[in-house]
Write a structure and sequence with these properties.
With 148 residues, the protein is of the alpha+beta class. The protein has a domain of 99 residues: 2-Layer Sandwich (Alpha-Beta Plaits), CATH 3.30.70. Strand 2 and strand 3 form a beta hairpin. It is globular and about 50 Å long.
């Protein structure tokens, strides 16, 4: 019987609700571990991730059997519940997200970009960063519906 094979790298980006900086240094490492475990349970390998105080970047492989929307939903739903259990009662993620395809030849570039998030955000806001991605990928968007 023929196999169905794929390896699609996805760079997922989304913010906390209203961009509130709720991800602290004290919870970041455990949040990373929790999300890696969540994704492993659905068959996704995480190449890199970094949770900034107000948004997150995840580079992972899209499992062959689910959609990007399902992938993001599983991350957001489980990690939001987990954050609340850590005592951050008002935690939630924004409703939307950005997802960007990554060529296998550019995986290391995106990994380094994600690893350097703290330094990167000394010079650029999350909103400007996301605008840059949307423009680079030629994604039409309306500012009224991007932020929540």
């Amino acid at each position: 019987m023929p196999q169905s094979l794929s390896k699609i790298y996805v760079h997922c980006v989304f913010s906390t609700k209203n961009g509130v900086p709720l991800i602290t240094d004290s919870v970041r490492k455990d949040l990373h571990s929790y999300i890696i475990g969540t994704l492993a349970n659905i068959g996704s390998y995480v190449n890199e991730l970094y949770a900034n105080p107000d948004h997150i970047h995840i580079l992972c492989v899209l499992p062959r059997t689910i959609t990007i929307a399902e992938l993001i939903s599983k991350i957001k739903t489980s990690s939001s519940k987990w954050m609340k259990k850590q005592g951050i009662e008002k935690f939630s993620w924004q409703d939307g997200y950005g997802s960007f395809s990554v060529s296998s030849s550019k995986v290391s570039v995106v990994e380094n970009y994600i690893l350097n998030q703290p330094e990167h955000h000394r010079n650029i806001s999350f909103k400007d960063e996301l605008r840059k991605f949307l423009n680079e990928y030629k994604i039409e968007f309306d500012e009224r519906y991007v932020w929540d």
